[in-house]
């Protein structure tokens, strides 16, 4: 297959900048380097498994996510239904089937499905590189297992009926109305976004000490509409003074103008405290560290901005959107962040007044957030979370995963082989390296 022409490649990169850059460090930047961790690198797989026990609070979410299958388990028939309905084998779905056998990571979806989904191909490749990393770090300590990863940034199927058998899908976000199994966000492994921030924390702390940060509410956002299921009771939004900002866009999808609504208010704000919140301007994520008060508004679904902002040792004011990530259960309001928009965004006035009057407490919360990131959202923390999640998930399987003749399990190719022989050559490798992987 011939590679993209220079103009087409340039347009692709421009699109990625517009689509993703505001939620992280701009694509094309190479500010960060791999975190130097010789102790972790020198451990044996067994030693890493033992070390992962030190992060036990992080795993509390796992049992809650797996609860729908605790009694019934996951049969081969249920797994095959998940493959059929939630991977690229079904028109319109952005999911990929992956497995481990004997400590080796496998792709179990054929390229004709996985390599035909635009920029989601790049996201699949990031997750496949994560699986290759798990293979290298844990080897035969990875369980025999197969599962589906979806890269769509909001959950699609409700799970509100007791006793119903739900299809297990791994995704980086959900609400309490959905049965998705939470996993680390692909942005956490991309240098242009969250992945590039961790190596810079000490230098950012020196560059932007608390005493020199600006007393200002700061935020930069892509003007996405919020999307959610029309019957999801946890995500409906009201605007300033209770104004309606949501509508049913279709039978199953509602949309809310959350970011537009707040940005419009910010432009006309005449409050007592300076506000610089925009859905039009662009600012590198590292530059956000110059401000004391950082606003987080979720995007189409859950936005990885929140995880990025926690790195910066500023006070993060987070919209309570109803969407959550795998580590949210461990976070504590007013200990790691300030909750906001539980009812309406008018709450921002009291929050800014509190932050100004309680500067020392705000500084303490900001420091706690960064300490949380260093301990639990590190490269070690993510690797350990994957290992523990897949270990517990594998216990639910009522069959032995592996290559089988038949409709769903006949394609099992090692991930490393798939990446080297298939992903690198597809489209002249444009999706293989458009996102710089950070282990």
From TrEMBL:
Keywords: Signal, Transferase. Residues 1-24 form the signal peptide. Residues 141-400 form the Glycosyl transferase CAP10 domain. It comes from Chlamydomonas leiostraca. Transmembrane segments: none annotated. Belongs to the glycosyltransferase 90 family. The keyword Transferase applies. InterPro entries: CAP10, O-Glucosyltr/Glycosyltrsf_90. The keyword Signal applies. One of its GO terms (molecular function) is transferase activity. This is Glycosyl transferase CAP10 domain-containing protein.
């Amino acid at each position: 297959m011939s590679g993209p022409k220079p103009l087409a490649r340039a347009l692709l990169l421009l699109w990625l900048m517009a689509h993703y850059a505001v939620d992280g460090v701009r694509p094309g930047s190479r500010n960060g380097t791999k975190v130097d961790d010789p102790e972790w690198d020198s451990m044996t797989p067994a030693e890493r498994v033992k070390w992962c026990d030190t992060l036990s609070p992080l795993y509390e979410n796992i049992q809650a996510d797996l609860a729908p299958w605790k009694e019934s388990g996951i049969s081969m028939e249920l797994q095959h239904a998940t493959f059929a309905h939630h991977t690229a084998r079904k028109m319109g779905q952005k999911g990929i089937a992956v497995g481990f056998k004997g400590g080796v990571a496998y792709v179990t979806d054929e390229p004709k499905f996985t390599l035909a989904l635009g920029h989601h191909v790049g996201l699949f490749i990031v997750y496949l590189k994560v699986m290759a990393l798990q293979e290298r770090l844990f080897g035969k300590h990875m369980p025999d297992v197969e599962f589906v990863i979806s890269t769509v940034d909001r959950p699609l199927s409700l799970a509100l009926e007791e006793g119903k058998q739900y299809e297990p899908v791994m995704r980086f976000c959900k609400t309490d109305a959905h049965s998705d199994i939470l996993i680390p966000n692909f942005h956490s492994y991309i240098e242009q976004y969250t992945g590039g921030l961790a190596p810079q924390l000490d230098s950012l702390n020196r560059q932007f000490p608390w005493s020199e940060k600006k007393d200002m509410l700061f935020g930069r956002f892509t003007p996405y509409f919020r999307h959610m299921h029309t019957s999801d009771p946890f995500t409906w939004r009201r605007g300033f003074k209770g104004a309606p900002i949501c509508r049913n866009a279709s039978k199953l999808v509602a949309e809310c103008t959350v970011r537009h609504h707040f940005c419009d208010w910010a432009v006309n704000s005449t409050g007592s405290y300076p506000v610089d919140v925009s859905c039009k301007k662009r600012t590198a994520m590292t530059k956000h560290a110059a401000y004391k008060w950082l606003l987080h508004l979720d995007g189409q679904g859950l936005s990885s901005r929140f995880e990025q902002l926690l790195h910066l040792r500023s006070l993060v004011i987070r919209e309570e959107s109803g969407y959550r990530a795998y580590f949210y259960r461990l976070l504590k309001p007013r200990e790691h962040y300030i909750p906001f928009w539980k009812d309406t965004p008018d709450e921002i006035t009291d929050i800014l007044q509190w932050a100004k009057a309680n500067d020392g407490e705000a500084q303490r919360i900001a420091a706690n957030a960064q300490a949380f990131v260093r301990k639990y959202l590190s490269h070690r923390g993510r690797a350990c979370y994957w290992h523990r999640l897949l270990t517990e998930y594998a216990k639910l399987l009522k069959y032995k995963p592996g290559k089988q003749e038949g409709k769903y399990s006949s394609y099992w190719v090692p991930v490393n082989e798939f990446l080297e022989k298939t992903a690198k050559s597809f489209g002249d490798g444009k999706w293989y390296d458009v996102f710089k992987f950070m282990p």
